[in-house]
Write a structure and sequence with these properties.
Blueprint lengths: L1 E10 L2 E10 L1 E8 L6 H11 L5 E5 L3 H10 L3 E11 L2 E10 L3 E8 L8 E9 L2 E9 L11 H15 L4 E7 L7 H8 L2 E3 H4 L8 H4 L11 E6 L4 E5 L11 E6 L8
Parallel strand pairs: 3-4, 9-10
Antiparallel strand pairs: 1-2, 3-14, 4-6, 5-6, 7-8, 8-9, 10-12, 11-12, 13-14
Helix pairs in contact: 3-4
Length: about 260
């Protein structure tokens, strides 16, 4: 989310007017896209939000998703990777960033760590601010979404990689974890705000998963964590039927007078 302003300079008697691209805020959409199973709804959702979204962090972004996004997100660069554990634990992920975003660095986390999912880390710079974004898809088995050795290791590795980074830190996606697990609490204990808890979100799932697994109805799987001083302008989890997960939409204030630590 950005705007342009004109700046006028005088050089050797000649007026020069040039345009500066200034971001007032950054908007990030996190979504386990379920490989476009609901293709028409997904297409409508992405087209709508591409108008003002700076970053899309997508999980379960198989080839069908990449082909769809290739046609819609023409003004975006893609950072992608995948990891295969089993037929039920496969992690194709993609982060799409507006082409006028200054991408400084990207890295795949957890790629060779056993018993874990996958995380895409991207370091961008906006208005001279360092913004660190992690697109997470946690290991899905076992399906109880409770703590185990792999899930604890997964959280620990992400937290340790981000510990020394300076600037705005945003970690989000489908963690495949219940709300009160130690694997999630570790982020809060490390200085992050859990926006799902803070905004009293009731669920990040919907009927598409509940109808498939009526005997084990689960309400949470997806989370966004940000560093404590960050000014969140908006955070929402709209009840839209684009996937068997609900999208999480975050807008962060980039006012340079705000601490953000």
């Amino acid at each position: 989310m950005h705007f342009f302003y004109a700046h006028k300079a005088i050089l050797t008697g000649i007026d020069i007017c040039f345009i500066v691209n200034y971001y007032s805020a950054v908007k990030i959409v996190f979504l386990n896209i379920w490989d476009c199973t609901n293709k028409d709804n997904v297409k409508e959702f992405i087209e709508k939000h591409a108008q003002d979204t700076d970053v899309f962090c997508l999980q379960e972004a198989y080839e069908k998703t990449k082909w769809l996004c290739k046609d819609i997100l023409l003004n975006y660069n893609m950072v992608a990777d995948c990891k295969y554990l089993s037929d039920t634990d496969y992690f194709p992920q993609a982060t799409y960033l507006k082409k006028d975003t200054n991408i400084l660095f990207s890295e795949t986390l957890l790629l060779n760590t056993p018993g874990t999912g996958l995380a895409l880390y991207t370091h961008i710079q906006i208005n001279d601010r360092d913004v660190h974004i992690c697109n997470v898809h946690g290991v899905s088995e076992p399906g109880d979404k409770l703590d185990n050795v792999g899930r604890l290791r997964q959280s620990r590795e992400i937290i340790e990689r981000f510990r020394s980074l300076e600037g705005i830190k945003i970690i989000g996606g489908d963690f495949n974890l219940e709300l009160n697990t130690k694997s999630l609490k570790m982020f809060e204990e490390s200085g992050y705000r859990n926006l799902i808890s803070e905004y009293k979100v009731l669920t990040t799932r919907n009927k598409f998963v509940w109808e498939r697994f009526p005997e084990s109805k689960q309400y949470f799987s997806d989370y966004v964590f940000v560093n404590r001083g960050l000014k969140v302008k908006e955070f929402s989890v709209p009840d839209v039927e684009v996937s068997d997960h609900l999208p999480m939409i975050l807008v962060v204030d980039l006012d340079p007078s705000i601490s953000q630590v």
